[in-house]
């Protein structure tokens, strides 16, 4: 019974552990995914803030030039250049600031350019029409001109500083007409250094991917400026989600980490949605569930110790109860065999002690009842013996009475026989008396009961006289 109970407890424990671990892993996975998602959005916002600041500067300058053009008042060119220099100095995070204004507003192309060199602002202006025409073919000019939207230019290596950079470009649009562009150059080394330290769950990776599928920053620095395969369905799904302003996530095998991972892409929109960048966080599933495994082992060890303790406790309690029940069974066996002197030792003050106490009380009551029954039985046995003696005496008297009755019957029978014989003798005597007797017989033989009967030939010849003679003879006998 104890083994069955322990088996049931072990089975329930196993089921509980299974359910707890399944629920725990599900909860941990959901929390880890949510944490990864929050991490991706957090770094995505940092990237957006870094790049968005340059875009805001471009947009403000572009709007300023739109107002100048709409006002149709040509400002002093030196004043415009001075204002641009002031903006560049007030934004040390910006590597460069430039404007390209189409000919018409000024009699010549206006293309001032400010950049940093050794911590100083360097000014350079290009008013050569050939230079201006050649630059119109570049992406930072042709794309905003074609789309008339703000554009974050794909990363490029600056030929002078050899640093990975990008430009936030805002078009100058006046009454729907493209008039030029304003651009801000930004180095991406800050993002590069920032993501190099991001290690989700110790072995995870984070990356910033451009709209064309180029790794701008990556936890693995060797991946920087390499291409993400944009011909895959994954990249198309990510791009489609970014255009809708949505995140994209999936679970799959990572070629880089060589294990199953969870990966999420969040859009980093700077300018038009179709030119959004993506921030990606990739975490191994085994690391996500590692805390669940720790909880599992902790639960198993703690549960094992608890089961061992409970099993020992159950074994002790079951043994104690079993021994007590064995004593009760032994007592009942002795009772069944007729021993009413059985008593249980009271060794505790718990329920089993109460049971033993009441068992003893019960046996005392049974003993008293049996004793009374024995006394009554003895009394009945004595009375039965008395009745047996009385019955024997009655039987003896009845036998004596029967014998006496038989004697009386025999006597009556003998009397009847004697009476019959006497009657026959008397009849014979009367007949003989009625016969003529010789004179000597008549005078010598008086009538007597024991006198021999007269022969029939001595009876009177007539019947009437015979009857009279018989009567006379009987009366003489009776006298």
Summarize the structure in words.
Residues 437-460 have low confidence and may be disordered. Strands 1, 2, 3, 4, 5, 6 and 7 form a seven-stranded antiparallel β-sheet that branches. This protein has a five-stranded antiparallel β-sheet with strand order 9-8-12-11-10, sandwiched between helices. It has two domains: 1-288, 2-Layer Sandwich (Beta-Lactamase); 417-478, no CATH class. It contains eleven helices and twelve strands. The protein is an alpha+beta fold. Strand 8 and strand 9 (215-218) form a beta hairpin.
Task: Specify Rg, calculated over alpha carbons.
Answer: 71 Å
Overall 3D form: rod-shaped
Spans of 5+ residues with little confidence (pLDDT < 50)? 437-460
Element order: H for helix, E for strand: HHEEEHHEEEEHEEHEEEHHHHH
Could you name the CATH topology of the largest domain?
Answer: Beta-Lactamase
Percent helix range: 55-70%
């Amino acid at each position: 019974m104890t083994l069955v109970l322990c088996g049931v407890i072990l089975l329930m424990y196993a089921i509980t552990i299974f359910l707890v671990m399944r629920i725990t892993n599900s909860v941990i996975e959901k929390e880890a995914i949510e944490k990864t998602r929050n991490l991706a959005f957090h770094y995505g916002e940092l990237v957006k803030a870094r790049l968005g600041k340059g875009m805001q500067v471009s947009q403000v300058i572009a709007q300023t030039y739109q107002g100048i053009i709409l006002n149709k008042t040509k400002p002093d060119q030196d004043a415009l250049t001075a204002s641009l220099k002031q903006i560049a100095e007030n934004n040390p995070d910006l590597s460069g600031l430039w404007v390209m204004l189409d000919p018409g507003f000024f009699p010549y192309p206006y293309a001032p350019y400010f950049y940093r060199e050794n911590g100083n602002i360097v000014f350079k202006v290009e008013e050569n029409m050939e230079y201006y025409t050649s630059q119109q073919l570049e992406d930072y000019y042709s794309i905003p001109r074609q789309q008339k939207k703000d554009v974050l230019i794909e990363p490029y290596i600056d030929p002078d500083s050899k640093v990975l950079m990008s430009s936030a470009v805002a078009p100058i649009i006046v009454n729907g007409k493209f008039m030029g562009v304003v651009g801000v150059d930004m180095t991406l080394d800050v993002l590069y250094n920032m993501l190099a330290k991001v290690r989700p769950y110790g072995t995870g990776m984070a990356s910033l991917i451009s709209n064309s599928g180029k790794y701008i920053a990556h936890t693995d620095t060797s991946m920087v400026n390499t291409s993400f395969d944009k011909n895959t369905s994954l990249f198309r799904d990510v791009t489609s989600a970014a255009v809708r302003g949505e995140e994209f996530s999936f679970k799959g095998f990572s070629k880089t980490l060589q294990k199953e991972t969870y990966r999420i892409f969040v859009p980093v929109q700077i300018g038009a949605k179709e030119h959004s960048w993506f921030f990606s966080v990739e975490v191994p599933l085994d690391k996500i569930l590692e805390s669940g495994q720790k909880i599992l082992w902790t639960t198993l060890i703690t549960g094992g110790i608890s089961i061992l303790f409970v099993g020992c406790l159950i074994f002790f309690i079951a043994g104690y109860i079993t021994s007590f029940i064995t004593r009760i069974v032994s007592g009942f066996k002795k009772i069944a065999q007729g021993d009413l002197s059985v008593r249980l030792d009271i060794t505790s003050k718990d329920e089993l002690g109460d049971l033993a106490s009441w068992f003893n009380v019960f046996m005392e009551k049974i003993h008293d009842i049996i004793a009374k029954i024995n006394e009554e039985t003895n009394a009945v046995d004595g009375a039965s013996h008395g009745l047996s003696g009385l019955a024997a005496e009655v039987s003896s008297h009845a036998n004596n009475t029967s014998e006496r009755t038989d004697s009386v019957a025999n006597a009556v029978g003998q009397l009847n026989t004697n009476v019959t014989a006497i009657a026959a003798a008397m009849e014979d005597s009367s007949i003989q008396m009625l016969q003529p007797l010789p004179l000597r017989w008549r005078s010598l033989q008086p009538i007597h009961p024991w006198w021999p009967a007269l022969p029939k030939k001595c009876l009177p010849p007539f019947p009437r006289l015979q009857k009279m003679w018989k009567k006379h003879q009987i009366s003489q006998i009776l006298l």
